[in-house]
Each structure stands twice: as structure tokens, then as C-alpha cells.
Specification:
about 35% strand; globular; five-stranded antiparallel beta sheet; disordered C terminus; about 10% helix
């Protein structure tokens, strides 16, 4: 539902209904841009190419094809920021994680939510125009590594495109939300999912998929925007050589360049290399730049007999947008061994470097380095670490290869990898300001102690069977301002936060928090905080800004997901995700933050330590990725220590074995577990519940209380 206060603003200045040949045609005369558009979602290639000329809209994921996430709107600026307040909010119908960047076209805001649902909202009031639910099954949701999230839609020629987590690519009518076409992009029954936003260019919809942690083979496909028919496909790692060519756009480069860099029975494990997030389009060269994922399994000893670079894992791959033909690649982590996927956001820009204007691609992936790449040739220009790194001391500019540390692939005993497998910069949006010349992105200092797993055996539905035994520790998290020309840090601001938006008003916007959160504005030149507004939801996504009738709004999708594992410090009752829009002088009142989560609810039985230990092994294999380490979670996905099912052996079995809650994403595990393991799992969870009850679990003594919901404005 939408909530706003005050007189509703008009979406359009004028609308005329014309009857042509029996069809109704709406002509929208939009304020602020002087254009006449023929209806909802009226975006074509020309408008996308000129997206920066109409900052009142947010036409493309990233703002423009450059992906700068920078807006020329400046009504909200350093002088007016103190008057920024909520204008409206809209509640989604799901409590799971929200990671989408909305698209705003001519007064209509389109946003996807968890479970791949899509809303069209009046961008000035938050009023719902339509809603689409692809009705993804709970069983398909269970395949996702990191919650049933979706990172956005694309809008093009009257259609809204969304990738569903079950692998469907769906085109919706931008006016009504009705399905125009739907096509399956993955093999039925596979562990592939879609969480990323489609990219639409030149009458093609480009989409990748996720699943490298489950043993799949990555690829990117192009579909006709009008019909959903596949045009071309580009595989990112080699397949089974016994099956011959794929009859795909990648066939030639796969045999001549890629396959020789792999060894052993790699196709047995899928290989990985999935393109689950970043696909950029460069109109100057008519190329797509694809960020590729980690290997499957992580440990190259098992994946490829410890030999070869394993192209195109952890790479930026450039291909022709029309044909999918290979152009160049740059591999950031040859023979990757640390889950350092390269799917993180990219920025395309022209930079003055050593007296020459260079067309560059900027990239800050998980491995802890900031790369500046010549996007015409794929040659590395510069690379420097943004956090402490132990896997490599530097990147050799002449060869483009990392100078790796001894034993970095844990072949001769344990290796302490910095950053750890969580990465320095993950999926969260990066911004670049042409005014300051700085890139802005959230980073984390962390580490993982990695050692070879001599007992490695692939386990179905178990993403943490990577051939590695690992222990993790977190360190500092902060927002980093980075000078890409001189490859140096300019400033940092502590706090773990989400994606970043930069504006011509001299501001940066970033959301923070896990279960409860806050929306923050900072000076783009110094990072000094100038405004803050508490939100009932934690925030992971990036904000966008747009204007309607001359009024600038800043909007952000709020709601943390399974990735928000916080040690239980802020475990709260589950709440719906929300889209929240702010404007100067806004008068909406946000909902209060949710109440604390229920108390611990251990089983009445006493379990042996041996039984608890066996249950711990089951939990680490199958449950960790959703319900948190050591069964400690923030309760976005249920904190099992508090479950009403836990005291009852029968109720527990009905959920864990029989799948009573499968529609919500909790599948029955009878295909993967033995009956006695279900009870061993209950023993382990009950043990952890006792720790929580007795104050011995992380966060047991914290209430998660927070200041009241009012603006906090600091000196500029």
C-alpha cells in the first residue's frame, strides 16, 4: 500500500485520448522535458543513448549506459538537504530481501522485489498502477544462494522485462503489467537462477544467470525484445568435450582460446563462471561487457587438476552486442581459488590519464583491487589495492597478471586470504561523479583461512561443498571515495552500507542497516555526513533520483535479506519491504520499526553431544546459507532458534522432511537427508536456542533499540 500526505502531484501536465483505427492511444506531454510520448514505458534506443539529457527520468539501470549512477538534478543540494523528508512509501507483499534499483519513466516508477515480483507506481504519490507476480515456486526459490532477491527490471518500447528466479525471462506490458511473452532461459531442473537485471539494447534483451556455487556452467543469452526468441548465446566456460560444439556464438573462441586453459574432468562440476549481475553496454563500440563469476568448485585442485588459467572465470569479457562474437577479455583472477567473482558493477567513462584522454572501464571486484581497463582493447591501464590483500602483492601492468603470494591456492597447507571469500566489494552499486572525478563504493576488510578439503564430494543443494575448508572473520567496513586516475584513496566513512547514488547537488546518498536502517546523505567531496533519516527497514539497494512536475525525489527500495546475517544483534519481527521516496518538504510518516523477535524456544528433550555434533554438520552443509552461521540470524529468514516448530518432533519433521512450508521457500529435504538427520538437526538447533536463552549467543544482550524517527542534520 502507498502512504503519502498532502495534495497528490499530477504525473503529467496534459493527456489527450486519441482514437485511431479503433485503438486508444495516450499521448503524454511530460513536464520538464518537452517531449510527447505515446504511452507507458516509451523508451527506445535513442532515448537511452541520450539518457543524461533527461535527468527527470532514470531510464536505465545505472542511470546511463556508462553506469555512473550520477544525476544532474540539483534541487536537493547542500543548502536544501535539511528540508528533505519522506514524501511517500509503498509496502511490498514480501518480507524477503530487496536489492532492486527502480526505473523511472515519465512519472512512472517500475521496481522488482524479492520473488521476482514487479510493481508500477505513480512516481509522485506512490499509488500502485499495477502489480505482477510470476508465482515462482518455493522449490525454485530454495536454489538461490543468497535469498530470493531481484536487482531490477529493464523498460523498452512499451515493455517491462524481468528475470525470474526460476530462470524465466518475462516481458510485461508497461501500461497494464500483463504478460506479453515468457521464455525459459535455463535448463529445466538445473540449479541456475536469475537475480540480475536484464540489459536491453538494439531490440535485444540480454540476461545471464546465477548458480556457480551449485555446479553450473555460466552463459549469457540475447533474446528478441519483441518476441522472446533467442538470438544468440555466449558460454563463459567450456562444456563437456565429448558432446561437441554448443552451436553458440562462443564456439570459435571456446575451442581456440578457452578450453586449452582447463584440465581434468572440469565439465563434471559445471565449471561456474556465471554472469549473475553486471552486463554493461558500450554504444561507442557496440559491445557488451560481462562480469563473470567464480569457479565451481572453488578449489582448482578438483575443478581443473590445479592447472591452467580457467578462462573466462573472474573476468571482464567483451562481446559484440548484435552477434555475441568475442572481442576481448581481461581476467582478474587466473585459475581463481577464492570465490573472487568479477560480477560487480562497472563504470564506463573517459578519463584524462597521463595527458591522454582514455576510454576506460572501472571495476572494483571482490579481490580487493581497483582496475582501470582500456575498454577499446581490454588492456590493463592501472590496478591498485583498495583493502589489504594477501593473495597478491600487486598487479603486473605489463602482463595484466597478479603477482601472487606463495601458497595462495592453499596447496601446501592453510592460507590466510585477504580479502576473504566475502570479498572487498560485493554486488552493491558503485557511483562515479564527473564533478569530483571520484568513484564511490562500499568495501569491507575481511579474511578467510582456507585449506584443502581432502574429503571433497559434491553435495546436491549444498553450496558450501567447494573443496575448501574455510574459517572467516570480518573487519572494518566503510564507504570509500577512490581517485581512479591516480589510483588512491581520497576519503573513507565507516559503516556497513549499500549501493551509492551521486548527484550534481554535491551529495552522495547511501542506505545502511540490516533489519532496521537509515538513509544518509554525505558531501561528495569530503564524505562528511549532512543528513540522516531512520528507516524501519535495513537497506542494501541503491537509490535513484528523478523529478515530476519540477519536484525532485530520491527513492530507494528498503528491506534486508538472508545476506544480512548480523549475529542476532537486531533480530526483529519480520516486516514487509518498502519503496520510500523523499522530497523537500515531504510530510509522510514512516512506519515504526518492528518489535524484537520472539524469544528462544528450545526443545524440551535433552540431546547427546554426539547427536548435536552430527546435526551441526548437517546444518553447515544445507542450512547455513539461508539461516545464518551457527543458526544465528537477523530473522529476515526465520531464526530457527525461535521457531514454534522446534519443541515438537512431529511439527519439525513436517517442515524439514515433508516440506509443509515449501510455498514460502522452505523445501522438504527428504531427497537429501536421512530421517535420523532431521532429528539431529533439531538437536543442534535446540542446543543453539539454549545458548540464546541463557545469554551465551552473539547479540544475546543487545536489544537493537535505536533513536526515534526524525531527521538528523549535521553541519555542512
Amino acid at each position: 500500500m502507498a502512504r503519502s500526505v498532502g495534495k497528490p502531484l499530477l504525473i503529467v501536465a496534459a493527456a489527450a485520448l486519441l482514437l485511431l483505427g479503433g485503438y486508444a492511444l495516450f499521448v503524454w506531454a511530460m513536464p520538464g522535458n518537452g517531449r510527447a510520448h505515446t504511452g507507458f514505458g516509451d523508451i527506445d534506443d535513442a532515448r537511452m543513448l541520450a539518457a543524461s539529457s533527461e535527468p527527470e527520468n532514470w531510464l536505465i539501470n545505472g542511470g546511463t549506459f556508462g553506469g555512473e549512477r550520477y544525476s544532474q538534478l540539483d534541487q536537493i543540494n547542500l543548502d536544501t538537504i535539511s528540508d528533505l523528508k519522506p514524501a511517500w512509501y509503498f509496502e511490498y507483499d514480501t518480507t524477503r530481501g530487496q536489492e532492486a534499483e527502480p526505473i523511472v519513466v515519465d512519472g512512472v516508477l517500475y521496481v522488482s522485489t524479492s520473488w521476482s515480483k514487479v510493481y508500477a507506481l505513480d512516481a509522485a504519490t506512490g499509488r500502485q498502477l499495477w502489480f505482477y507476480d510470476p508465482k515462482v515456486s518455493g522449490a525454485d526459490g530454495a536454489k538461490a544462494c543468497c535469498d530470493v532477491v531481484n536487482r531490477g527490471v529493464a523498460v523498452y518500447k512499451g515493455k517491462v522485462y524481468v528475470g525470474a528466479i526460476d530462470g524465466r525471462l518475462i516481458a510485461l506490458d508497461a501500461r497494464t503489467g500483463d504478460v506479453v511473452w515468457s521464455t525459459m532461459t535455463v535448463e529445466p531442473g538445473s540449479m541456475q537462477t536469475i537475480t540480475g537485471a536484464p540489459r536491453v539494447v538494439r531490440d535485444k534483451v540480454i540476461i545471464g544467470n546465477a548458480g556457480a556455487d551449485f555446479g553450473v556452467r555460466g552463459y549469457v543469452s540475447a533474446y528478441e525484445a519483441a518476441t522472446g526468441k533467442m538470438d544468440w548465446r555466449f558460454y563463459l566456460v567450456p562444456g563437456d568435450p565429448a558432446k561437441g560444439p554448443d552451436h553458440a556464438a562462443s564456439d570459435s573462441v571456446m575451442e581456440s582460446l578457452v578450453r586449452p586453459t582447463w584440465s581434468g574432468d572440469y565439465s563434471r562440476f559445471g565449471g561456474g563462471g556465471t554472469a549473475w549481475q553486471t552486463i554493461m553496454y558500450d554504444p561507442e563500440f557496440n559491445r557488451l561487457y560481462i562480469g563473470t563469476g567464480n569457479g565451481s568448485p572453488w578449489n582448482p585442485k578438483y575443478r581443473t587438476d590445479g592447472k591452467g588459467d580457467n578462462l573466462f572465470l573472474c573476468s571482464v569479457v567483451a562481446i559484440d552486442a548484435d552477434t555475441g562474437e568475442y572481442a576481448w577479455h581481461y581476467q582478474e583472477n587466473p585459475q581463481e581459488a577464492w570465490d573472487y567473482n568479477s560480477t560487480q558493477p562497472m563504470v564506463l567513462a573517459d578519463l584524462e590519464i597521463e595527458g591522454a584522454r582514455r576510454k576506460v572501464l572501472m571495476h572494483a571486484p571482490k579481490d580487493g583491487f581497483f582496475y582501470v581497463i582500456d575498454r577499446e582493447t581490454g588492456k590493463l591501464i592501472s590496478a591498485e589495492p583498495v583493502v589489504p590483500t594477501t593473495w597478491a602483492t600487486s598487479i603486473d601492468i605489463a602482463t595484466g597478471r597478479p603477482v601472487e603470494a606463495a601458497n595462495s591456492r592453499y596447496t601446501d597447507g592453510p592460507f590466510l586470504a585477504k580479502p576473504g571469500t566475502a570479498g572487498a566489494h560485493n554486488w552493491h552499486a558503485m557511483a562515479f561523479s564527473p564533478t569530483t572525478g571520484l568513484a564511490y563504493f562500499p568495501v569491507a576488510e575481511n579474511q578467510s583461512l582456507l585449506r584443502n578439503n581432502p574429503d571433497f564430494k559434491p553435495v546436491a543443494m549444498g553450496p558450501f561443498n567447494h573443496g575448501v575448508i574455510s574459517e572467516h572473520a570480518a573487519g572494518a567496513s566503510y564507504l570509500l571515495a577512490w581517485d581512479p586516475v591516480h589510483q588512491r584513496e581520497v576519503w573513507r566513512v565507516p559503516f556497513r552500507g549499500g549501493g551509492v547514488l551521486a548527484t550534481a547537488g554535491g551529495l552522495l546518498f547511501q542506505g545502511r542497516g540490516t533489519v532496521i536502517g537509515e538513509f544518509v546523505a554525505m558531501r561528495a567531496d569530503t564524505g562528511k555526513e549532512v543528513w540522516r533519516w531512520p528507516t524501519p527497514n535495513g537497506i542494501q539497494a541503491a537509490a535513484v533520483t528523478y523529478s515530476v512536475d519540477g519536484v525532485q525525489y530520491v527513492a530507494i527500495s528498503t528491506g534486508a535479506g538472508a545476506g544480512a546475517m548480523t549475529g542476532g544483534a537486531e533480530a526483529r519481527m519480520r516486516q514487509p519491504g518498502r519503496m520510500i521516496a523523499f522530497r523537500l518538504g515531504g510530510t509522510a510518516v514512516l512506519p515504526k520499526e518492528p518489535d524484537p523477535a520472539p524469544p528462544a524456544n528450545p526443545a524440551p528433550e535433552q540431546f547427546s553431544q554426539a547427536m548435536i555434533d552430527r546435526g551441526s554438520a548437517v546444518y553447515r552443509t544445507y542450512c547455513y546459507r539461508c539461516h545464518g552461521p551457527n543458526a544465528v540470524s537477523s530473522n529476515v529468514i526465520p531464526d530457527l532458534r525461535r521457531s514454534t516448530m522446534l519443541p515438537s518432533k512431529e511439527a519439525w519433521k513436517a517442515v524439514v522432511w515433508d516440506g509443509a512450508l515449501e510455498p514460502a521457500g522452505m523445501i522438504g529435504w527428504s531427497e537429501y537427508l536421512e530421517p535420523e538427520q532431521v532429528e539431529e538437526l533439531r538437536a543442534y538447533i535446540s542446543f543453539q536456542a539454549v545458548q540464546l536463552r541463557d545469554g551465551n549467543a552473539p547479540g544475546s544482550h543487545q536489544t537493537g533499540s535505536r533513536r526515534s524517527s526524525q531527521a538528523v542534520v549535521q553541519e555542512q
